[in-house]
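Sample log: Protein Wnt.
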Amino acid sequence: MGPLNLLTALALSVCCHVQFATAWTVNNFLMTGPKAFLTYASSVQVGAQSGIQECKQQFAWERWNCPESTLQLSTHNGLRSATRETSFVHAISAAGVMYTLTKNCSMGDFENCGCDDSRIGQTGGRGWIWGGCSDNVAFGEKISKQFVDALEGGHDSRAAVNLHNNEAGRLAVKGTMRKACKCHGVSGSCSIQTCWMQLADFREVGNYLKKKHEQAKKLEMDKKPARAGNSADNRGGIAHAFRGIPRTELIYLEDSPDYCLKNQSMGFQGTEGRECLKGNKNMSQWERKSCRRLCYECGLRVVEKRIAVVSSCNCKFHWCCTVRCDKCTQIVTKYYCARKESGRKQHNKAKRRHRGRRH
Ligand SMILES: *[C@@H]1O[C@H](CO)[C@@H](O)[C@H](O)[C@H]1NC(C)=O
Ligand SMILES: *[C@@H]1O[C@H](CO)[C@@H](O)[C@H](O)[C@H]1NC(C)=O
Ligand SMILES: *[C@@H]1O[C@H](CO)[C@@H](O)[C@H](O)[C@H]1NC(C)=O
């Protein structure tokens, strides 16, 4: 079987129950049956998609920008690596799936699931009691785990790392939840409040995991080769390597490649041709440095291009009831990374400079 990404894997499982049939329907969905499986599967896909979208957003101005070609979460791809970046992909996908399932539950999209009312009526703290609709993360966690973790078939250190990062993603959804309250009492005196726990915006989960990506820890596996045929030995080694790493932290096994460079076999395009941002006071520090990060530090130069953008303008309301607009053409300047004319020599020099700074 060729490379398989999470979305196609999930799509496959929906249509054909191919290789996941044993893992899912038999073990996890025996009690609820294929109907429940199908009910959740579409939400799982929506959730995985929103995770990938968030990944693209979070890494829009980074050298590695969450390209489709690297979103292979399945174990069936022989090339798969376990870098800092794939750890983020695992976490944000798992988080997206859990998030969507939880939201669906609160919205009443599933018959067998509703708000978490386990604490309703209890006193939460001074002046407030539990009420309203707390998002049912326990449900989202349980179902998403069954779907997403089942994609990980192996028992090696990579599989263990991927499962750990999936878990970190789900914990991010929980960890960013917050309390929301409503006032009660005589004419809005707010003498008593009812409060519930709700999911943060998914963007916040993305921001949280992006920080975890920056702080990700490299798992130091024992370099001694495991004795041939003794897999129990190897498992002991994996467990040992994981000791002391909090479940909330992202971990990886391999250092990231140089994302400045194109590497077809790994599915990286390099940064040549990428857009970067310049000259807007409003931009964040991160955006303002995008040309440096994507172009200059990769031994490329920045070229300016003027691009015509057509939009609607001068819209007028005509009685009754139409709106007519003109088409206005605006010339905007955009910036892109391009190869230097003089070619290789400069590139190597710049790369060395950049490497020197990093170490
Ligand atoms: C779950 O929510 C997503 C978007 O939030 C929606 O597209 C999907 O249809 C929902 N699933 C169900 C079963 O209603
Ligand atoms: C692409 O990446 C692989 C794996 O890291 C490496 O072995 C190979 O040399 C790279 N190819 C190029 C052209 O950099
Ligand atoms: C800067 O941001 C403010 C508020 O977000 C906005 O009103 C303003 O138009 C922006 N200026 C530019 C040059 O983009």
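Observation: The two ends are 39 Å apart (CA to CA).
Observation: Residues 33-58 form the longest helix (26 residues).
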